[in-house]
Structures are given as C-alpha cells and as structure tokens.
C-alpha cells in the first residue's frame, strides 16, 4: 500500500493538516483500507523532509477522528469503519459545511436539481455503488 502525500509549502494550511486531509481522503476513497498500516512516523517524515513531530501530530488527529488506531510497538493502522464513533459534534460541523455549500450554490443561481446531481457526482468519486 503506497500513500502519496503532497505537501504544498506555500499553502495557508499547516503541514499536519495537509497530511490529515490527504490521508482522510485516501481512507474515504478506499485507497487505503481497514487494516492497512500507515508508514512509520520517521519514515514518512524523512520522505516528506519534515519534522517527525508534524507527522506524529497528524497521526494523533487521525486517531482522534477514529480513522486510525495506534498499536504501541506495532504501528498505526486504518480502523474498522464499524468501530468508528459517529461523534454528534462532527456531524453538526458537516451539516453546517453542507449548508454553506448549498447556500453558495443557490447564490450562484444553480438549481436544486443541479446541486443534487453535483453532489451525487462528487459522492460517486468516493462511493462506487450509488
């Protein structure tokens, strides 16, 4: 399993957040799956030429999100989706983000049906069976 992480040095987004976002997307898309072992902190840090603490921070955030589990002495692995908690605060944040996107679309003059089609197309990039 190879993970391609691209760090944009000129980005406003911190490096650890870029790692979290890209790994979370890879998990959502099934590019890395349940049980897959993530690269060791030092190995990924060396590959990206960044401080190992930055990678460790990203892994801690992924673990708090429930996307990975760390087994001391063994490594960090993608967690089973059935065992991930559905945190109400995370669901509320997602709902607010969706509301903002819907408002932006409507303000651009996009019809309701077209917004739904756009959502289904984007979702199709992550979920194969719609």
Task: Give me a quick take on this structure.
The protein is mainly alpha-helical and 130 residues long. The chain is 52% helix and 6% strand. Strands 1-2 form a two-stranded antiparallel ribbon.
Descriptive report:
The protein is mainly α and 130 residues long. Helix content is 52%, strand content 6%. The chain is built from five helices and two strands; from the N terminus they run H-H-H-E-E-H-H. The chain has helices at 15-28, 41-48, 52-64, 88-107, 112-124, and strands at 68-71, 75-78. The radius of gyration is 17 Å and the shape is globular.
Based on the model shown, name its key terms.
130 residues, mainly alpha, Arc Repressor Mutant, subunit A, 2 domains, two-stranded antiparallel sheet, 2 strands, 6% strand, globular
Record the SSE blueprint.
Layout: H1 15-28, H2 41-48, H3 52-64, E1 68-71, E2 75-78, H4 88-107, H5 112-124
Antiparallel strand pairs: 1-2
Helix pairs in contact: 1-3, 2-3
